[in-house]
Amino acid sequence: MTVFSRIIAGEIPCAKVFEDDHVFAFMDAGQVNPGHVIVALKRPAETILDMTDEEAGALFRAARRIAVAVQAAFKPEGLTILQANRPAGWQTVPHVHLHVLPRHADDGVTLGWPRKEPDIEVLRQLAGQIEVE
């Protein structure tokens, strides 16, 4: 059982922001900036790969609604919506969730990666390997 499952079950106290049939949202205990919200799937799916289309839609719809509310309440200069999968993808809690993170130009938050910029033929070859169902 993950820490998020325990929060959703009421075993660990939280500052709840939103709840519906699929989603439970609460303030991140490690506030990067005021208004930082975790939007978690109620069912304990580990990653986005383990969700149904219905659950994925519900999660992102809730994140959008929460982002609108965070924008109204905290007036950040920007918003980052972050979703990570598995440790190599920066996931720290194995329970699918999104971060709604209010941002300011000088907040010290970074997210970067080296750009590799292959040519268009390589991009087309890579695209050809992806079969969307």
TrEMBL record:
The active site is at H97. PROSITE patterns: HIT_1, HIT_2. GO terms for molecular function: catalytic activity. Residues 3-110 form the HIT domain. Transmembrane segments: none annotated. Signal peptide: none annotated. Pfam families: HIT. One of its GO terms (biological process) is nucleotide metabolic process. A motif (Histidine triad motif) lies at residues 95-99. This is Histidine triad (HIT) family protein.
